[in-house]
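Lecture 7 notes. Example A: sequence first, then its structure tokens.
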Amino acid sequence: MSEPSILQRIAAGDQTAVSDCMDQYGDLIWSLARRYLGMDADAEDAVQEIYIELWSNAGRFDPNAGSEVTFVSTITRRRMIDRLRKKGRKPGISDIDDAPESALGEGEESLPHHAELDNIEAAFSGLSEQHQQILQLSIQEGYSHSEIAEQLSMPLGTVKTKVRRGLIHVREQLKINSESE
């Protein structure tokens, strides 16, 4: 019988496992937090929340379902995505009175047009509905390939292939569009 993992020890109430968890996974959690949120206080808050969530959900870890590092990185990534979504919904701190008058122009003409966004949308719309759904779940919503496979009742290999082919298609379309401009 093998030794219990760090998360299993935390779930069992082992106080030394908490510091072992921080030592073992601290760099991973911090690197993901910095990648998603940058080097600000928001990343520090997120890391604290992630540790709390890891400790409170340690009992859910099943070594037969996946590795401990996968469990930790999945929880971390999900919290970062949740945080970014929440942050995106909050109004900015600056007041509209602080905006330069040129930014408050009349009508759509004052908004910058993003041709790159149009190209991405066009490339994406050239995909089948199933490819679009799988890429949306993967890229926009942050689900792993295995989570997508489970959600859509598809084999994992099929999901991986569709993600890869979809990304290749979008990349090729973007290359074609940028060369034709």
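Example B, a different protein, same format:
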Amino acid sequence: MAIVCLISVNAQAPKGMGSNDPQAKKILDAVSAKFKTFKSVQAKFSLKVENSAGKTLGIKSGIVYMKGSKYRISITGQEIFSDGVNVWTYDKSSKEVTISKIDPSANTMTPQKLFTNFYDKDFLYKLNGTTKGLNEIELTPIDKTKPFFKILLYVNSNAITSTKLLEKTGNKYTYSTTSLTSNRNIPEATFVFDVKKYPGTEVVDLR
């Protein structure tokens, strides 16, 4: 499961359940406010996968580009493009790209929402503690049918440095930001899959 696991979370949980930690909300709101000031973002990240015994199953590296509602994610073996209307998911090993249209009513999670105020709709959250300036915030999904039962966010200086997703199977996925650059001029073509650049690709159009 790559970063697409996070961006496929749908916001369909009922509202008004439980209460949230005001300290955690203050930290998350500051992260959201800072991110919204960026015209564009380019961030490098790593993904570490562990099983229930704590054994590392693999480590991948990747890069994400964001601009407005558009994004592109490149990670070992997979690329995801979105121009804000369509999503292209390219599997490098099978040379297959799947095209789907974004459903505005589904509120599908995007990389942008991971840095903004998605937490207010889908999760209960609390501040577990602060160590050496790093805040650990625990998020519990309101919708208990999700494959994961907890997300831990680590926040420093109004920025999320790493995210740990804990699945019900016992697997853990840790996404760590290794660098982040804001307000670069990112070409619009970055967010559209160009089949000409990927010769031999099979196209599966689900639009």
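Note on Example B: DSSP finds four helices and twelve strands in the chain. The helical segments are 4-7, 22-36, 111-114, 119-122.
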